[in-house]
Amino acid sequence: MTERPDNTNKSKEKTTFYLGVRHFCEKQIRRLLSWYRSLTSRERLIAASAGAVLGAFCLTASFLTYSYYAPVSFHTYAQKVDVIVVPGDTARSIAGKVSRSGLGVNETVLTALLRLFGNHSAIHAGRYRFERGDSLSTVVGSIADGLVAVGKLRVSDGMTFKELRTLIDAESDLQHTTAHLTDAELLKKIGATEENPEGLFAPDTYQFRAGVTDLSVYALAYNKQKADLMREWKDRAPGLKLKNPYEALILASIIEKETGVRTDRHLVSSVFHNRLKIWMPLQTDPTIIYAMGEDFKGRLRKRDLQRPGPYNSYLNYGLPPTPIAMPGLESIRAALHPSRTKYLYFVARGDGTTVFSSTLEVHNQAVAKYQKTKNRAKTGS
After folding, report:
1. How many of the other CB atoms lie within 10 Å of CB of 34?
2. Residues 100, 104, 108, 112: what is their CA dihedral angle, to the nearest 10 degrees?
3. How far apart are the first and last CA of the chain?
4. Helix 262-277 vs helix 245-258: angle between axes, to the nearest 10 degrees?
5. Which among 241, 204, 240, 239 is positioned nearest to 222, based on CA atoms?
6. Distance CA 159, CA 162 (A)
7. How far apart are CA 206 and CA 199, in angstroms?
8. Residue 64 zone, left/alpha/beta (φ > 0; ψ -120 to 50; rest)
9. What is the enclosing helix (H) or strand (E) of 347?
10. pLDDT (tens digit, 9 = 90+) per residue, 62-104?
């Protein structure tokens, strides 16, 4: 989207201005005719010559004024065009880009106007968007005032890094500079010290100047997640079995994938914390699904749970080696502030809510009641 001025008020102002000019001109013409009739022949000749020069000037000024406010022609079938201004661009180079984009503007005239109305040494870099019906004054004003188009990117809670890269690569308002980079190279570019990118980027809605690099969005999301995590880690509940902020991020990612119900997050967290305290496997399906990747077809089988690997939370004790998704802030808080319970099991009712149990016997009863049509319990079976 682009921040654009209110054209309704401007149209009213221009109409009022033109009517005022017309009234003034008519009045002055009547006065000039009256004065002209009072002159001698020689004086009339001199006045006529001066009038011709003045008339030509007025016609030229009127034409330029009309051209400045009239809609610019489009030499393309598109309804809008984008012009990308990069650091170091001059008024002349920008005018050339505007002309080549499909807008019917004279490069020399636009260059002069940009120099006249804008600070060409401090023009904002970014993507400028112009639509059919825009006038030359809109083009000049937008560039001179730095009214670049604004892009928006929605990064959802629980996305994987692979999904994030696909999302960013498809964003047309970004300048793409990372598509050829490996995950490790990308992390190095944004100054990250971690080896695995999973979970390091904060889910959020990011607004940015259209035309900025995709790397800047990665850096923004990385720094936000890091700042949120460190702030919440300092305020964590006492007595947790988490050694460092990264382990909190891992647990938060599991909670994120286990439940989307806000009121359940801290209870789910308590189940995992209680299991960590007694060295009991977490037995959570999302870690298995994450390890399977594209091999997961919507249903886990017994052999999937018996397949060895670092993310098999049925065979291994403790946390997996990395996060399995990008946890949101609520899941990070839940991981660091579990409810005080004795729960060791939970199962989904099927309506979005969860049943928690402290014993295997009660848990199995809940599984039999709520998971009749499903192959497996949500966790801890």
Report:
1. 9
2. -110
3. 49
4. 130
5. 204
6. 8
7. 17
8. alpha
9. strand 345-348
10. 555 656 677 888 887 888 888 888 888 888 899 899 889 888 8
- Distance separating alpha carbons of residues 311 and 29, to the nearest angstrom: 89
User: Cβ atoms within 10 A of the Cβ of 153, count?
Assistant: 20
- Does residue 178 sit in helix, strand or coil? coil
Tokens 């098999």 sit at which residue?
A: 312
The 3-state DSSP class for residue 195 equals coil
Tell me which residue of 276, 281, 300 sits closest to 289, measured CA to CA.
300
The whole-angstrom separation of Cα 82 and Cα 26 is 43
For residues 217 and 208, is the Cβ–Cβ distance under 8 A?
yes
Among the listed residues 32, 66, 81, the one whose alpha carbon sits nearest the alpha carbon of residue 136: 66
Closest by Cα among 275, 266, 168 to 178? 168
DSSP assignment of 91-153, as one string? HHHHHHHHHHTTB---HHHHHHHHHHHS-GGGPPPEEEEEETT-BHHHHHHHHHHT--BEEEE
Query: Per residue in 227-279, pLDDT tens?
Result: 999 999 999 999 999 999 999 999 999 999 998 788 899 999 999 999 999 99
Tokens describing residue 282: 């977490």
CA 352 from centre of chain: 29
Give residue for tokens 């249903």.
299
pTM for the predicted model, two decimal places: 0.71
| Distance (Å, whole) CA 54 – CA 43 | 16
Do 199 and 159 meet the contact criterion of CB atoms below 8 Å apart?
no
Locate all alpha helices (DSSP H) within 241-301, ordered by sequence: 245-258, 262-277, 285-292
